[in-house]
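Async update (no meeting this week)

Hi team, since we skipped the sync, here's where things stand on the single-chain job. The sequence we agreed to prioritize is pasted below, unchanged from the tracker. I ran it this morning and attached the output directly underneath so nobody has to dig for it. Comments welcome in thread, and please keep replies under the output.
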Amino acid sequence: MSAFLIAAVTVKNLAWIPEYSVNVPPIVRSHGGKFVGVTKNIPHAVELVEGTVPPPDGYAIMTFPSMDALKAFLADPVYAPYKKARIEGTESNFWAFENYDEAPQFIGQ
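Output:
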């Protein structure tokens, strides 16, 4: 069953972004993951269209072949220094969930 990772970041400083942007995608791919969506022009790239919670500066949405693969990416020692830089340079919230790959209400779309 596939899994999704949704990362929301509010930026404290931009210094970590160039190195992260170059080095993290290959690490994601090494765990079978791929980016589905990434905001452009951080900060202030997210528009609130419903609700009252202030949006973060940016989002990234990734898909992985399984929750185990997703968690392996997050725990990968190669990812550790980039994760540390992101944590120090942002307020981050990550959510993960297993996708209901055969959701009957979405089949055929």
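Quick observations from my side:
Strands lie at 3-11, 34-38, 58-64, 90-98.
The chain is about 30% helix and 30% strand.
Reply here if anything looks off.
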